[in-house]
Write a structure and sequence with these properties.
Strand content of chain A: 15-25%
Number of domains of chain A: 4
CATH topology of the largest domain in chain A: Pyrimidine Nucleoside Phosphorylase, Chain A, domain 2
Shape of chain A: globular
Strand order of the largest sheet of chain A: 1-5-2-4-3-6
Oligomer: homodimer
Largest interface: A-B, 80 and 80 residues
CATH class of the largest domain in chain A: Alpha Beta
CATH architecture of the largest domain in chain A: 3-Layer(aba) Sandwich
Number of strands of chain A: 18
Helix content of chain A: 25-40%
CATH superfamily of the largest domain in chain A: Nucleoside phosphorylase/phosphoribosyltransferase catalytic domain
Chain lengths: 508, 508
């Protein structure tokens, strides 16, 4: 059956930079009439293997029917350029990719089969090297969502996600960490907990994510105060000097599969339990942490809605954590309303600063929550006796040591700065008076997102009333902040269409 | 909250045709620095609403960073041009789309909730008007796959898919139809059954699909013999004149959601039971059929692998059929090996022609299968007494009436033609002798697809041995046909890597 070699059926074209940004999907552009398209029988949406030097990627084909490309040229999306590492004018070799065999595991999972360690490893590896199209990623995420991953599968997915990326080693134990299981706007305790713990002499190299489905991730908020895009060497320098850092983990290749999956979860607005467990724990283990305190807000409109769901999820986190070498403690907290007064990257940074500086009007709920978590971390580290953690944390915050440590960390990360202010604001007032008996966190988060958060760092909203407040008709409920009139208008349209974000008990 | 109107936050740009074919996904191209991108805070992968005249579509944003587009220009993918119906140079208005509320139903389904009629209708409507990105479509398909749709949900999905499209009415009953539940290469009985039934004076307006995951759909095969892209008026003309037709259903907007979903299923290589039921029945009901015979091949490498699975699926088809006004009869057939001798559009057409012409070496299995199905259709119509159907069908075929009717149908559809021949072939021989005790249909189908089928109509393969044949070392097993050397080589690479497609019992 020999005689026809691999090279005979591959063809070479010259790379041209079209400058098309498709976000993360690798797309290849070829002219309909080019030799490769015709001889290989490629048509739009086909998957094409692109080889350059010793790199190889798989890209989705978009067929060009105009003179946008010459017949001997091929274009790549910006994501594909990044993956391939080639230069304009370089020659690439194109061919049909071999079938992505790990997709058969995804199909098996769709049909209810269990995925073992080997299956998860091949899936996660293929995802990281870019062999999955967005359609494939979406199917994998959906097939693993709901409660469709059992304990073994979560362990397998977590391990696979750790192993496929870099892993930091601090040569030291304990290495402390914390994480909030999102869903609660304004919950920026990390920016308080890290300086408290570091000020106590413990190591806490915190890598945070940007927002997935929320209006601000910790990295988005921190970025309004200091650079967060540090490389591994940069992080080591900061942590060696200050004991702690608050950086974006995305550039570090810690659990790189997570970054890819999260992007599609965002587009689906879907948070799956198994993927959440694997996402959180793989990042922590890859970051070299040994002890992790997880803040899990529970409430009707938080990510975790019932105490039953919280218990199930926390058991998964603790048990899977144990199997990947992490001691995990989960703290259930109140998830019935936003934490602090402000939602959005820069706005949340202002709440954090007021607590660190001990300002009189600082949001007490944010402060108390940070002290609670810091206390648990201190106790989990065994550096502070059980029952004493919160007291110690409070002393560190009140004395100004946490504030000084925070500034030192910001300086070490590249210099502290002032968070930006929005150019467009609008005050939404109460349509009638009464007592506030419910706040819809999800809709508040959506307003902040429609206003531009997190991409517009100054966008978001500022709350003027809280659960239990008694307010009068016309009194301000919240202020929407936006960086453009279009985004402000869009957020306000949503406010108008959703009058019951604040549930009021009207006294008669 | 007034003062900022909708029009203030929408912006207008001039359409430019870039000629980029993304297959079905609507993509919009805007310059990074254009006013709309900046003022609306759009970034790559954002969903953008495009309004033109009284049409409105949602497209996925690709951001252009070079001078491919001027700042006041906007490009669309070919799919988006088709959906929008605009001309180059026209002005479009761009805005943030309202949240696609039906996606909350998809998320609910991911979490195991049941979808009611209303939920299915809103999902299917949003799919048809282009509000779902490929990532959303993939999640919906995956969430409904496996056995995750119950009876009520299948009925709801089927009804929703019928109602969202056109529905033909023949003003006449019975209107006969047939369908093969795919998975068996070469199973082209439709091209035999339709002329037999029409020659008996019954109405059988057959709309067929192109291949989903197989190397040839019925429409692909028929297209090598006559035009199949007829509009509704064209079909009426053919059916009024000849009683039957064999056309591609895709252009008719009969269950248009099906065409969109099938494309993503293809990219996932996934066939879901509930979606299969809804796909088959919605097409039949929308085509105005009243009585349908379904051919369900069962075998270890067919689409339906066990008699248990066949029974479950056929119950779903009959029961859901009843609720949407279709009398459905399911015939289980042998699915252990390909039907006929050839696989691929033009090759299968040759098998069909040899049966119609009564040639001596015509594949008997294809002939027998067609007579079986035609017999059931005749009996289901009540035009022929029970037990007599197959005999009547045989007379019509043997007498040449079916062959004359087939030619008349081809002429009515636009003229009969000769199927094309492949320019590149390769004979694969047996590596050793023995008796053939198993044939892997799925791998044979994959070889035909790798050779270019169905997009290359002459591509596919021709079998020289069947189940039970005793063959000697070096004897031909099958010939691979391709239209290009690249595709031939690729198919042969796969053959080389998969030596056990024919399972042999070696006599010792």
């Amino acid at each position: 059956m020999g005689g026809i070699s691999h090279t005979d059926r591959t063809r070479s074209l010259r790379l041209r930079r079209l400058g098309i940004d498709t976000y993360q999907e690798a797309v290849i552009y070829m002219h309909r009439d080019c030799y490769v398209c015709r001889s290989e029988g490629f048509e739009a949406q086909a998957r094409v293997q692109v080889d350059y030097s010793n790199r190889s990627i798989i890209a989705t084909l978009n067929v060009v029917t105009t003179d946008l490309l010459a017949l001997d040229e091929v274009g790549l999306s910006e994501a594909a350029w990044r993956l391939l590492g080639a230069q304009e004018g370089d020659q690439v070799v194109l061919s049909h990719p071999a079938p992505v065999e790990s997709l058969s595991h995804v199909r098996a999972k769709v049909y209810g089969k269990r995925l073992d360690m080997m299956a998860m490893k091949t899936i996660v590896y293929d995802i990281v090297v870019g062999r999955y199209s967005d359609v494939h990623l979406s199917a994998f995420i959906t097939a693993c969502s709901g409660d469709r991953l059992n304990h073994q599968e979560m362990v397998a997915l977590t391990r696979a996600m750790i192993e496929v990326g870099e892993r930091l080693d601090w040569g030291h134990t304990p290495v402390m960490d914390k994480h909030s299981v999102g869903g609660l706007p304004g919950n920026r305790t990390t920016l308080l907990v890290v300086p408290i713990i570091a000020a106590c002499g413990l190591i806490i190299p915190k890598t945070s994510s940007r927002a997935i489905t929320s209006p601000a991730g910790t990295a988005d908020t921190m970025e309004t105060l200091a650079p967060v895009n540090l490389d591994t060497a940069g992080i080591r320098r900061v942590v060696e000097r200050e004991g702690g850092c608050i950086v974006w983990g995305g550039a570090l290749r810690l659990s790189p599969a997570d970054d890819i999956l999260i992007r599609v979860e965002r587009s689906l607005d879907l948070d799956s339990e198994g993927q959440l467990v694997a996402s959180v724990l793989s990042k922590k283990a890859a970051a070299g942490s040994t002890h992790v305190v997880l803040d899990m807000p529970v409430g009707p409109t938080a990510k975790v809605r019932t105490s039953e769901a919280a218990k199930t999820l926390s058991n998964h986190l603790m048990e899977v954590g144990r199997e990947v070498g992490l001691e995990v403690r989960v703290i259930f907290t109140d998830g019935s309303q936003p934490v602090g007064r402000r939602i959005g990257p820069a706005l949340e940074a202002r709440d954090v600063l007021s607590v660190l500086r001990g300002e009189r009007d600082a949001p007490q709920d944010l402060r108390e929550r940070a002290l609670l978590l810091a206390g648990h971390i201190l106790e989990l580290s065994s550096h502070v006796p059980s029952g004493q953690g919160q007291k110690v944390a409070q002393e560190v915050l009140n004395s100004g040591r946490a504030w000084r440590k925070f500034q030192a960390i910001c300086e070490a990360q590249g210099g502290m700065r002032e968070p930006p202010c929005a150019t467009h604001t609008y005050v939404v007032t109460a349509p009638y008076g009464g007592r506030i008996i419910g706040i819809d966190n999800r809709r508040l988060a959506r307003i902040a997102k429609l206003a531009g958060a997190p991409d517009a760092p100054a966008a978001g909203l500022e709350l003027h009333a809280r659960l239990g407040s008694i307010i009068e008709k016309g009194q301000p409920l919240f202020t929407v902040h936006a960086e453009t009139p279009g985004e402000l208008a869009y957020a306000l349209d949503y406010v108008k269409a959703n009058p019951n974000i604040f549930q009021m008990e009207v006294s008669v």
